[in-house]
Design goal:
single chain; Arc Repressor Mutant, subunit A; Tetracycline Repressor, domain 2; 2 domains; 12 helices; 68% helix
């Protein structure tokens, strides 16, 4: 297993809060906002170290020291080093965007509009960090394997939203198939973007992926 070595360093956390950051902080209490910023600081230092010395050569001890937290604090936020890469703060924002769309709108259209919009916002301030994450997932086998565990599987998010929109507790077979297709399509999209070094527009790639899904795979 070889460590990835991204060429670009993650952006520094300076300047006014971005619209994405404001969106993440809006529903949080002051205590929860502090936790969010600590979590982000730990991850930012981790990516800085990984950029310089590779994933395998970067230890939890080094990350904690760079972020000026104890190792026990690190593990309160991230149970494992893999979780630091595989988890993020964006799921609540995506869920809110999905649930804000019209209930009678086809779900593929709902996801297409919400995801493309969120991606365009993320690209304004989080592009390099997102690229580092996706390159790590693409290049490190342990991360690829854990990505599809239940806690990290993108399929579950879409399944939860589908059942909430329908007002039911147990998803139908059709919902499971739909969520599986969307999860696989979005995963393949971000990994393609990472493999290409981020040269393509990821928002456009997401839009193209949903065009394939909405077209019923007729234009392949």
């Amino acid at each position: 297993m070889s460590a990835t070595r991204p060429t670009a360093a993650p952006p520094a956390a300076t300047g006014p809060a971005t619209s994405v950051q404001a969106m993440l902080e809006a529903p949080l209490s002051l205590r929860e906002r502090k936790k969010l910023k600590t979590r982000q600081a730990i991850r930012r230092e981790a990516y800085r170290l990984i950029t310089a010395q590779g994933y395998e050569n970067t230890t939890v001890e080094q990350i904690a020291a760079a972020a000026e937290v104890s190792q026990s604090t690190f593990f309160r936020y991230f149970p494992t080093k893999e979780d630091l890469v595989l988890t993020d703060e964006y799921d609540p924002a995506l869920v809110s965007a999905l649930l804000a769309r019209p209930v009678d709108e086809p779900f593929l259209r709902t996801c297409r509009e919400a995801l493309v919009g969120l991606m365009r916002e993320l690209l304004k301030s989080e592009r390099e960090e997102l690229l580092i994450r996706m390159r790590l997932v693409n290049d490190v086998p342990a991360l690829r394997a854990r990505m599809f565990e239940t806690a990290n599987d993108p399929q579950q998010l879409y399944l939860d939203v589908l059942t909430r929109r329908a007002g039911i507790e147990e998803p139908t077979f059709g919902m499971r198939v739909t969520a599986a297709a969307i999860g696989a399509a979005t995963t393949e999209t971000v990994l393609r973007w990472a493999r290409g070094g981020g040269t393509e527009d990821i928002a456009d790639l997401v839009d193209r992926a949903f065009a394939v899904l909405e077209g019923g795979f007729t234009d392949l």
